[in-house]
Amino acid sequence: MPNVANTKPPVLVVVQLSGGNDFMNTVVPYNEPRYYDYRPALSVQPDSLIPIDADIAFHSNVSPLKEFWDAGKLAIVQGVGYPNSSRSHFRSMYIWHTCEPDRISTEGWLGMAVREFDPAKENVLTAVNFGRGLPQALVSKGVPVTSVSDLDNYGLMTGISSDDERYTALARFKEMYAPAVGTGPVMEYLAETGLGVLDGAEIIKQAPLMYRSDVEYAGNEIAQGLRDVARVHLADLGTRIFYTVQNNYDTHSNQNPTHDNLIADLAKAIADFFQDLEDHDAADNVTMLVFTEFGRRVADNGSGTDHGSGGGAFIIGNNVNGGLYGEYPSLDPLDLVDGEDLKHTYDYRGMYSSMLEQWMGLDPVPIVGGSFEQIPVLS
């Protein structure tokens, strides 16, 4: 386990970009002429770029991330994905959540990590999700996980103010996973995981009352999600894994300005979150992983981009060995998957393994289902 400066246990914050973030327009291969050929409508022009090196640049809308990069606190994992990438949102996200590209599994990688942290189920706040439903990544048999829709007004999906909202969330969860694992197992999971645990609601609702901050978060989804993460983390309730989501990355049309606005919101929210933690001397034991289910197609469709592969991820924190990891996928037509998609160059399970072993102090092999090449991303 890492020897973090304040000696508190390491905490992992996972941010899911749902819909498939366009990595090519977030970290741009601006010195590759084919990038502009493939994207006559959507290429990011030089005056909207912040160079990282001679080959790639940040979109200017994620300029707050450049500050982390310059400080050596941001790792960019390029070309992250898996073999035979699925273009289905559901299937691809399921693969990312369970580490099972080839078969159906009901065990989420973070749920299994929670079981290692708290085998006796002593703390229902070991893992906390902010958002509707419960991500499959946090699901594991008998593992309690707290899921919060609104920290100020909502407990553990118990519908403190509305039973209807709770049942809606439960129904959505059941509809999502029943086709894959069967109605019986789904209902068993609902009974045995955090969705059936009520104690966490009474504990977690104290966090907003304890919170004071000079940071003014924006009112958008990801900013409010990370504000909630900060509030619970600063309340020191023993949470080891936080999870939150930013939606609407499925930009088949009207990608500009939708994507530009989303990544601007994301970068600002991340900067505010870490500033908040720094102000409270609570950042040294926190590392953030930002991922998405797949990249977008190499060529634009005139207005947007379609489902692709070979995306990218960010790892951020004071203990991160900043830099580029993995290889930016080639844009040579001969190297594209099916002539359309970026080819993944690094297996996401290696990235997970790096986080689990180097940061969380866990054996990754039984969690990710094998041994995969790690990257030296954490001090």
Describe the fold and architecture:
The chain has 379 residues and is of the alpha/beta class. The chain has a single domain (11-368), classed as Alkaline Phosphatase, subunit A, CATH 3.40.720. 34% of the residues lie in helices and 15% in strands. It is built from twelve helices and twelve strands. Strands 1, 5, 6, 7, 8, 9, 10, 11 and 12 form a nine-stranded mixed sheet that branches. The termini are close together. Mean pLDDT is 89; it is low at 154-161 and 194-198.
List segments where confidence is low: pLDDT < 50 over at least 5 consecutive residues. 154-161, 194-198
User: How many beta-strand elements?
Assistant: 12
Topology pattern, helix = H, strand = E = EEHEEHEHHEEHHHHHEHEEEEHH
CATH architecture: 3-Layer(aba) Sandwich
Shape summary: globular
Mean pLDDT, all residues: 89
Domain count: the total is 1
- If helices are DSSP runs of H or I spanning 4 or more residues, what is the number of helices? 12
Query: Helical residue percent?
Result: 25-40%
Summarize this entry quickly.
The protein has 379 residues and is of the alpha/beta class. It is 34% helix and 15% strand.
Question: Topology, pairings included?
Answer:
Layout (H helix, E strand, L loop, with lengths): L10 E7 L9 E2 L4 H6 L10 E3 L5 E3 L3 H8 L3 E8 L7 H10 L10 H9 L9 E4 L15 E3 L14 H19 L1 H10 L6 H6 L2 H4 L10 H14 L6 E6 L8 H25 L6 E7 L18 E7 L5 E3 L20 E2 H12 L5 H4 L11
Parallel strand pairs: 1-8, 1-9, 5-11, 5-12, 6-7, 6-8
Antiparallel strand pairs: 2-4, 3-4, 5-10, 9-10
Helix pairs in contact: 2-10, 5-6, 9-10
